[in-house]
Design a protein that fits this description.
The chain is α+β, with helices and mostly antiparallel strands. It contains four helices and four strands; from the N terminus they run H-H-H-H-E-E-E-E.
């Protein structure tokens, strides 16, 4: 029995992909895919690939522009945006066909957090998680204390 348990634990450890970052919440593979794909498309400045991560059959809220009613609107929103990015998941929840990821972003993988984000996700008919809201907020840096 103990050998079977050890074998199961070893298999589970080997069969999971590494987390998006070395810190923060551990995400299920299906949610990790959303962050990985988002990061890859953002780094490539690929607005079409970013738009494909969003639900196309409803009004969605991309971060960089007003609500969009379709993927063409989302693609137009993200055209010209992108570059270095690091995403760290801090928390997540899945409730049926809805989920969210709360995290921090930086200008590079492993970089100093520059702000926070919330992705709201909906599962489509094929079981793929798609973004319905992408909201982020930069951290306000405190000014240094005045010199005495």
């Amino acid at each position: 029995m103990r050998t079977a348990l050890i074998a199961c634990l070893a298999f589970a450890a080997c069969s999971t992909a590494p987390p998006v970052s070395t810190s923060g919440a551990s995400l299920p593979l299906e949610l990790r895919r959303v962050l990985d794909d988002y990061s890859a498309a953002w780094r490539a400045k690929d607005a079409k690939a970013l738009a494909a991560l969003f639900a196309g059959d409803r009004t969605v809220v991309p971060n960089a522009c007003p609500p969009a009613k379709d993927r063409a609107g989302i693609e137009a929103c993200y055209t010209g945006h992108g570059g270095g990015i690091g995403l760290t998941a801090l928390d997540h929840r899945i409730d049926g066909s809805m989920a969210y990821i709360i995290g921090e972003y930086s200008g590079e993988v492993g970089g100093q957090p520059a702000g926070k984000f919330v992705l709201t996700l909906s599962k489509d008919q094929t079981g793929r998680w798609l973004i319905v809201a992408d909201m982020d907020q930069p951290y306000r840096r405190q000014p240094p204390p005045p010199a005495n």
